[in-house]
């Protein structure tokens, strides 16, 4: 378990701060996250903030609660990914599609329903982490929307 966690942490420590960095460069996040360390060329602010948030979560939750939180929020994002397929197909009907979804739309519906059921079950089993799993992506969407509106006003 420890080796798996360290492997995951390594990937997340490398990738996540760079997502915040790119969002900041695009104007969709706080500008301070868009600055690189002058010598090492890494997004220092993003790494430090992510580290602080991680330490806070470790102190507030046990391993089981943390994994449930990650699983619930990941499934929410997976549902959004799956539902993006029919939405984008309807929104852009003439775009080239090099890959066809097998048995579309049945597989999309079945996968979305199954994941929604798992999210609901996870939220019922652990209501606190279920609520946090819903609140964190909602707050992220709100922050993105606020920065996006600000960008559109400036343009």
Summary keywords:
mainly alpha, 155 residues, 5 helices
Mean pLDDT: 89
Summarize the biggest pleated sheet: none
Low-confidence stretches: none
Helix percentage range: over 70%
Question: How many DSSP helices?
Answer: 5
Molecular shape: globular
Structural class, please? Answer: mainly alpha
Could you describe the 3D structure shown?
The protein contains five helices and no strands. Helix 1 packs across helix 2 (44-60) and helix 3 (63-91) crosses helix 5 (127-154). With 155 residues, it is mainly alpha-helical. It starts with a helix and ends with a helix. Helices cover 76% and strands 0% of the residues. The model has no long low-confidence stretch (mean pLDDT 89).
What's the short version?
The chain is mainly alpha-helical and 155 residues long.
SSE map:
Layout: H1 2-25, H2 44-60, H3 63-91, H4 106-125, H5 127-154
């Amino acid at each position: 378990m420890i080796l798996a966690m360290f492997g995951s942490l390594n990937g997340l420590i490398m990738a996540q701060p760079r997502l915040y960095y790119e969002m900041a460069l695009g104007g969709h996040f706080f500008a301070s996250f868009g600055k690189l360390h002058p010598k090492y060329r890494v997004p220092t602010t993003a790494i430090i903030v992510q580290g602080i948030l991680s330490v806070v979560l470790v102190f507030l939750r046990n391993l089981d609660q943390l994994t449930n939180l990650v699983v619930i929020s990941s499934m929410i994002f997976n549902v959004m990914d799956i539902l993006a397929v029919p939405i984008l197909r309807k929104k852009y009907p003439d775009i080239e599609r090099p890959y066809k979804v097998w048995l579309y739309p049945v597989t999309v519906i079945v996968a979305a329903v199954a994941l929604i059921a798992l999210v609901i079950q996870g939220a019922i089993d652990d209501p606190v982490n279920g609520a946090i799993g819903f609140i964190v992506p909602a707050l992220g969407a709100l922050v993105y929307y606020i920065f996006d509106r600000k960008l559109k006003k400036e343009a």
